[in-house]
């Protein structure tokens, strides 16, 4: 996992793959407040963005997940949420089998669990070995409205 804040440093893309550089440039240049929810192509089906607006939920209502074919960039446009995280390990118990079409596998828990706060302008890059729990309320009793973009990058592009 890697985290950052869009536009904080001129060197933020130094040494990144061209696919990651392209995805971060997309995040930096779009007006997501006026963009409709849904899928937005960046490079066909190999790099695309999913824009959503939702209310955060208590941790117990958010399922840990991981992906095999795509890297996620989870970018918060407005609002804030906790993103739970742990490295892939044999200690994790699957909640459901891997769904190849959706490229997602859900887990029962994150073991051990760490959390990072994603505020407006911040992002996390999550690789297949990064099991994560998105959409968690900062305070369980105070859900928050969030606008978030998840950019999906074909893992093969990250090797170029």
TrEMBL record:
SUPFAM superfamilies: Clavaminate synthase-like (SSF51197). Pfam families: DUF386 (PF04074). PANTHER family: EVOLVED BETA-GALACTOSIDASE SUBUNIT BETA, PROTEIN YIAL. This is YhcH/YjgK/YiaL family protein. It comes from Selenomonas sputigena.
């Amino acid at each position: 996992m890697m985290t950052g804040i869009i536009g904080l440093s001129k060197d933020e893309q130094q040494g990144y793959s061209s696919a990651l550089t392209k995805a971060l440039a997309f995040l930096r240049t779009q007006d997501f407040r006026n963009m409709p929810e849904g899928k937005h192509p960046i490079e066909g089906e190999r790099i695309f963005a999913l824009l959503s607006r939702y209310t955060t939920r208590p941790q117990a209502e958010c399922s840990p997940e991981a992906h095999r074919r795509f890297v996620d960039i989870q970018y918060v446009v407005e609002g804030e949420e906790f993103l739970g995280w742990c490295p892939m390990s044999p200690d994790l118990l699957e909640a459901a089998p891997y769904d190849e079409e959706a490229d997602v596998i859900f887990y029962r828990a994150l073991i051990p669990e760490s959390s990072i706060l994603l505020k407006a302008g911040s992002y996390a890059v999550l690789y297949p070995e990064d099991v994560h729990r998105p959409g968690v309320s900062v305070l369980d009793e105070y859900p928050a409205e969030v606008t978030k973009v998840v950019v999906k990058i074909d893992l093969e592009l990250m090797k170029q």
